[in-house]
Amino acid sequence: MSTLLKIDASAQLQDRSLTRKLTALFERTFVNVAPHTQVVSRDVGQTPPPFIDYRFIHAAFTLPQEREAWMGDHLAISDELIDEVVAADIIVMGVPMYNYGMPASLKAWFDQVARIGKTFSFDLNRGDFPIEPILSGKHLVVLSARGEFGFVPGGVRADKNALDPALAACAHYLGVSSKAIETVTIEYQEFKDDRHRASVAEAQTRTAEIAHRLASSFAFKPSSERGVSHHSCQ
Ligand SMILES: Cc1cc2nc3c(=O)[nH]c(=O)nc-3n(C[C@H](O)[C@H](O)[C@H](O)COP(=O)(O)O)c2cc1C
To answer: What EC number is given for this enzyme (predicted)?
Structure first.
């Protein structure tokens, strides 16, 4: 059985969010092909994780066996979010571009999930690259939307793209190598013209294709063992 972690980061509700519609399409297609999938939904857009603070840093950098009770309490949300990542085979993220970067709610999620001893190790014996990820072998599908256009390398706004490079830089904390990231992007949302409509149609086709392909690689269990289970976290 495979586990799909679905993360939505749009501050908009389902009806008004392009990325939420794409993540829903991804989930539907995936579960259709691999009905035994366990889907875990984490809605950071509706319920943002707390920003990390000095207590989080102090607690996270104290060895587990030396932690005081308040430290364990303060790391509880981080533990829960990390457990969801650890259990996931595939992570699909609905990510709007806000002010040229990722929504603050998703950045807060990454800050809770990137944790020493849990998702990365740190060792100065490794020289100039002391950080190594602990998790591995996961797939990340980024389903994004932008009001403007031209954020790809060589595009008219490539220099303003603070979103895709940030996701690529942080993906290793999730156990995702750079080759295991696939990104689908809706553009021109603010123009509401034919270019936007074409972009939506293409994004829907690609989203369904990726979901179908990834689900096919997990859909190997006999039908008698299949049964979809849902678990929602907010
Ligand atoms: C607060 C806010 C900031 C935004 N900043 C940008 C931006 O910097 N660049 C851009 O191309 N679009 C920007 N947009 C447009 C969104 O990326 C676009 O509306 C997208 O469809 C949002 O995703 P959603 O439909 O899933 O909510 C912004 C929208 C909002 C609400």
So the answer is: 1.6.5.-, 1.7.1.17
Largest CA distance in the chain: 60
Asked if residue 221 has pLDDT above 70, the reply is no
Q: Confidence class of residue 223 from pLDDT cuts 50, 70 and 90? A: very low
**147 CB within 6 A, ligand 1:** yes
CATH architecture of the domain with residue range 3-51+77-225: 3-Layer(aba) Sandwich (3.40)
Q: Kindly report, residue by residue over 191-213, the tens digit of the pLDDT.
A: 999 999 999 999 999 999 999 99
Q: Which residues have a Cβ under 8 Å from the Cβ of 225 and sit 6 or more positions away? A: 1, 36
Q: What is the rounded distance in angstroms from the CA atom of residue 8 to the CA atom of residue 23?
A: 7
Instruction: Please tell me whether 223 is known to bind a ligand.
Output: no
**Ligand 1 in reach of 188 Cβ (< 6 A):** no
CB of 112 within 6 A of ligand 1: the answer is no
Distance between Cα 189 and ligand 1 center (Å): 8
Q: Which residue's C-alpha comes closest to atom 22 of ligand 1?
A: 96
The reported pLDDT for the residue numbered 220 is 62
